[in-house]
Amino acid sequence: MLTGMKKFFKESSKDLKRIYKLADAVNRLEGEYERCSDQELKRMKDKFKCELDAGKNMSEIQTDAFAVVREASKRVLKLRHHDVQLMGGFILNEGGIAQMNTGEGKTLAATLPSYLQALEGNGVHIITANQYLARRDKELMGQIHEFLGLTVGLNISGMEAAEKREAYVADITYGTATEFGFDYLRDQMVLRRAEKVQRGHNFVIVDEIDSILIDEARTPLIIAGHSGEGTALHEITAQFMKSFIKDEDYEVSVESSAAYFTNQGASKIERAFGIDNLYDLEHRELLHNISQALKAHAIMKRDVDYIIIDRRISLIDKFTGRVMEGRSFSDGLQQAIEAKENLEISAENETQAAITLQNYFRLYQSMSGMTGSAMPSKAEFWETYQLPVIEIPTNKPMIRSDEPDLIYKDEIGKINQIVTAVKRIHEEGRPILIGTTSIEQSEKISVHLKRVEVKHQILHAKTEKDEAEIIAKAGRKNEVMLATNMAGRGTDILLDEAVKNLGGLHIIGTERHESNRIDMQLRGRAGRQGEPGSTQFIISLEDELFDYYDEEEMERYLKKIKTDETGLVVSPAPDKFVRKVQETIEQQHQASRTHLFKLEQALNEQSTIIYAMRDRILDLETERLHTALLEYIEKYIRRLVVKYYPEHTDEPGPSALIEELSFVFPSLDWQVSDFGKLDVHLVEAKAMGALAEMKQRLEIFQDAKDCGNQLRTFILHHIDANWRNHLDEMNGLKEGVGLSGYGQQDPYMLFEKEALSRFNMMLRTIEEEISIHFLEYMESGHEESGDG
After folding, report:
1. Mean pLDDT throughout 385-411?
2. Which parts of the sequence bind ATP (predicted)?
3. Is 741 marked within a binding site?
């Protein structure tokens, strides 16, 4: 009953003391539920539901529900929830983040709140770090839920819409963040309510929550459609870039992952394309295209940012090392890279719908998460998501040895030391995991290991299909595994008993990451559940991390360093310097995330309005659709009248009004003389009279076959087309917003003001297009939208 941890709680927070008592209460119920039959455990679901329906809240049944799940797990999986897992479950249930060390059983802990929350019948989503884990957890942990009478679904890429709907109808649904996000976006593009797959956003548990809500926060989910742009220019500019020389024709900013043309480079482009000024508005398509060609040439690296599979570009997630299924670079960069690699160029896309993971998960009524590395970002989790982070003690004492970093002046010294360390530890028989930051780096170190005849396995995006087999062997005696960040999260390396006696798994990190949280994840592969193990980072001052640091500060430090004969930096305080660099870069990234988050709020609010508008149209019956259409037209007409007959004017504009109204009513035969001295109210009444005639025409049209669906599609087409244009405009507007103010004005307020102005203009354009094109659409009898 947690007696071994009472000292810890005396020194901890009130939250942990309270959670300790809850876990203790579950322990006291264990004997009671051990005496239940399988059927009695299963029937507890109905008992709990009745109690909730009768007015009890979840806090009143949570200890019993947790005790039921623990007992089911013991019978189905032969796994008994440890006390620390019960504690993690309570934190998740209350909408917090449970920091649980790697190997402490987060996945099993999630079965507790997911069962309890599923009793409400609104669906629980469990987000995993990748599809492999989603499938594994659904098949393994899903057995507990199914034993207790709940249904379990799996949502991964490649599934048909009908399969996804079935997955979402389940009580508990496992899947990846990107797949849930993309499903949400696709649901905002359907033409029939029945085509949607999701059924709401009730309760979500996000595994590796720091990876998803912080590391991936700057990457939006984008659904794109073909824009019809040609591909020839991409091929031309890609070839042209091969003649460009760094620091002469272009410069690179590593910090912002951007490249810029110098004056010499711009002049070279102008001569080649026979233009006077590359930056003139008339050449914006060329400028955009050749700028993306430059980024593909100077910034994007094969086997780092992307790989080529079956002559197609596949994106690599630098935080997980995995292929990003179903994702492509946007804004023409995908095509620029294809041209650079001499691949078939795909059609360029335009954004149709977009959302950041930050804003997707804010849709949920309640969100919680778990990870082994949340504490370094505790403040950001609270400021951005109002999620508290609570650190849970380990079930067994941690005995892993984390050795001090070895920091070398250059890459040669680093690699020599890595090879030396691997040979020495390999001879002891201990398994070794060598963590790298890219496929390119893995393959470079592999070459050196082969030279000294150290047999090893390689795990990265290219060998992903062999992942399970490679991981299964990684904890055996004499095994050496080179792995990208694929081995950094959710990977269980099981040790043979003989290996434990030798000292356990040894981990070598070959670079410090941009975030210490990712380093923590790599270390966490060793020393799980009180097992022995050791870790050490062997890095160099030529590593990519230092490219992001201030160049002048870096040069000053390099002038002061002293090394031994192997190139190892011994002074001044290399470990402190590395921490300073890493913290500085983390702060830069946090500032970037905050910047993006502030910009995205305006667009997020606008998307909520547009999606609500779409949902209203999707839900209307045919008769109400007619009313909605007439409301659009009526608003447009009233706006026209006010435009040409504004208050406090002696010069109304009947001729201009007649001209614009003739687009809505082509048979309009009004004359300026008809208006005489009519005031604005009489003019409006006259215009509404013309609308009454259209209502009669509409009554005839509504008898047409499939009229409701035709009308719904017509309206949705105009909403969607204008929304796509607006997204494109907003992307351009965001790019122009800096972190500094303009003339002492808040740039975010300026952005919001301009964004609102453009959004209101878009809404007016929707009304105008629907009004102007409807009569033509009605008379043409179209069964497809968009030709009006």
Report:
1. 93
2. 85, 103-107, 492
3. no
